[in-house]
Amino acid sequence: MLKLQILGIGCRRSKALKDHVLEALKRYPLNVTLEEVSEVDELMKFDISSTPALLINGQVVAEGDVLSVEEIHDLLERCGAKEPYSLRLKHILVPTDFSESSKGAFVYAQALAAEIGASIKVVHMFHPEFDTGNPFMDEPIVAFEKNKRETLDDFIRESTLREEGYVTTDTQIEKEVVIGFATEEIVKLTKTGKFDLVVMGTTGEAGFLGRVLGQVSTHVAQQSACPVLFVPRGVTHRLFKNVLYAAKYQPGDESVMRWITRWIQFFSANLHLVHVVDSKESRFGVDQTDLEKLFNRNGQTVQVTAVKSDSVIDGLNKYARDKKIDLVVLTALQRRFYERFFHRSVTRRLLINSKLPLLVIPSK
């Protein structure tokens, strides 16, 4: 981490330097701390001949000059500033309802875990009073729970065999049966801090949970404390080389951009930042060059594109096909990004209709 200090007496030039530093950190989020020194007694302790001055780790890098945003950013990078956090993907949560869709998600999670060296926990949630598949309605709950544990054992064993293209890995796999509603229990688990990613199927078929899985997916996408990767039925894992981020960038959304930066660096992927504009909009709404500067680092590239379509889903799907996209990324934020896109009914349609893995970034 780098320590930045701005030395000045509050004059116009000092304020201008501070504004440029803040703008540089906003456009290009880096791992630094920032301190402003303006008291005369404190300024006299520094070995400078004029203000404003900028110090990095106690060393004077500029004095008597108002550096541009680009000059400040270049200085920070040369001094070794890095992104604030490396992406952590060590523990994956896989909820299952024993459907073919959740089986496919589990197989997908195994391939992903093998690639990145992660462990998996497979969890089945059930509520006896609301599960029409419960053969023990009149029996103690312990009997039904025992049946669920046995079914979970069978599910894991069958889904890790070398059959139908499945690949056995040495990935550590844990399991658990939880009593409760799936929507609530999945979100609760994500808030424990024990998981870095949730992998789920997008269509379920078994019993009560299967009939509402579209609603479960939407709720989890909106409320999860960690990213959620939705896997359409029949989709197998492949390397994330081209990632599409669907959003309307606005000032103040730098935390999301930092997360995306870490993701594409982790997987050495290229980013396609796509905003769908309808007939009422004429432009992307932000300087594309600024966004390209934000991401064009460490060997990755970004393509910023405005796609014209009155249907957000159709516009994104067409772009994904044309550019051979491997993963679509959304944000759970509703109003700050693209309110009509993240409306629950639209999100649900995308979860059901998408032919690509869909990663939803949490809103916090």
Features of the shown structure:
11 helices; elongated; Glutaredoxin; Rossmann fold; 22% strand; 364 residues; 3 domains; ten-stranded mixed sheet; four-stranded mixed sheet; alpha/beta
Explain how this protein is built.
The protein has 364 residues and is α/β, with parallel strands linked by helices. It folds into 3 domains: 2-78, Glutaredoxin (3-Layer(aba) Sandwich), CATH 3.40.30.10; 91-231, Rossmann fold (3-Layer(aba) Sandwich), CATH 3.40.50; 242-361, Rossmann fold, CATH 3.40.50. It is 37% helix and 22% strand. It has 11 helices and 14 strands. It has helices at 12-27, 40-43, 69-78, 100-116, 141-159, 182-190, 207-223, 254-266, 288-295, 312-322, 344-353; strands at 2-7, 32-37, 53-56, 59-63, 91-95, 119-126, 173-179, 197-201, 228-231, 242-246, 270-277, 302-308, 327-331, 358-361. The chain has a 10-stranded mixed sheet, sandwiched between helices. Strands 2-1-3-4 form a 4-stranded mixed sheet, covered by helices on one side. Helix 7 crosses helix 11 (344-353). The chain is elongated and about 80 Å long. The relative contact order is 0.11. Mean pLDDT is 76; it is low at 204-213 and 334-344.
